[in-house]
Amino acid sequence: MNELLSYSWTLTVLIPVLIVFSSLKILREYERGVIFLLGRFWKVKGPGLIIVLPGIMQMVRVDLRIRVLDVPEQDVISRDNVSVKVNAVVYFRAVDAERAIIQVEDFLQATTQLAQTTLRSVAGQHELDEMLASRDRLNSDIQRILDEQTEAWGIKVSNVELKHIDLDERMIRAIAKQAEAERLRRAKVIDAQGESQAAEKFLEAAGILSQNDQAMQLRYLTTLQTIASDRSNTIVFPMPMELIGRLSLKGSAGEEK
User: Whose CB among 42, 126, 142, 154 lies 3.0–4.6 Å from 99's, allowing a Cys bridge?
Assistant: First the structure.
């Protein structure tokens, strides 16, 4: 009989102690606990030491740290009908623990699926050249749309970065040919501009030299010196510029007669 009483007293003391210890929960600095009282939302607690009465209260932990979501590779048809494969990285975090648990069943899975559909939708609205040259704009568009959609779930999308835009071999060769043709076009334009500028300078120099016969003769002698320095079999017969001028005057006089 005494043993039975001793055993009952032990249970009487031990059960409340076990209940108290099981009620104590410790939440880290980056965790919050969504408390439900008899199935109804009560409050959000944490961080630190909190009490959750077993059988009456239930707690769901929510991690508030930034999560990194690697969006799987998506097949996208661009606006100019080019098939590409695009994948991205999404950075997001739960900012409202209550809505992250109550408003959506699994906010991680929901954000993943929404990121995939948004990536395909936004990328498909742009041409291939825009995808390759304007990644920052695509990143900001995807981030803005995701943030607007996930705000009701208590989720904040802080950043989106496109990782890869993969093309097939034929499209890569076509882009290489286009780039080569563009470089050739620029080279021809630059060459034509150089010829035009040189012609203008030659015309300006000819006008200056024509005003003085001695200047023309000096230019002629400089040309002879340049030719003589070249190792060739070219034979040059210099002719005075005054003689050329006189011959031209006599020729014009004869025509007048």
Answer: 154
Three-state DSSP class for residue 249: helix
Nearest to 82 by CA among 172, 149, 8, 147: 172
Q: Is 230 in a helix, a strand, or coil?
A: coil
3-class DSSP state for residue 39? Answer: coil
Are 145 and 122 a contacting pair, CB within 8 Å? yes
To 5 degrees, how large is the angle CA 10–CA 16–CA 17?
85
- Whole-angstrom distance, CA of residue 29 vs CA of residue 47: 5
Beta-strand relationship, 24-27 and 48-51? antiparallel
From residue 205, alpha-carbon distances to 181, 192, 210 in Å are 36, 20, 9
Structure tokens at 218: 């000096």
| Cα(188)–Cα(170) distance, integer angstroms | 27
pLDDT computed for residue 240 by the predictor: 60
Cα→Cα distances 107→35, 60, 159, 189, 202, Å? 18, 13, 17, 56, 74
| pLDDT confidence bin for 133, thresholds 50/70/90 | confident
Q: Is the dihedral of CA 63, 64, 65, 67 positive or negative?
A: positive
Report residue 187 as tokens: 């080279």
pLDDT averaged over the chain? 81
Residue pLDDT, tens place only, 14-56: 777 777 778 888 899 999 999 999 989 999 998 888 888 888 8
Give dist(CA 87, CA 116) in Å, integer: 9
Does the global pTM surpass 0.85?
A: no
d(CA 167, CA 202): 50
pLDDT in tens, 154-173: 999 999 999 888 887 776 67
Could you tell me if 213 and 242 are in contact, meaning their C-beta atoms sit under 8 angstroms apart? yes
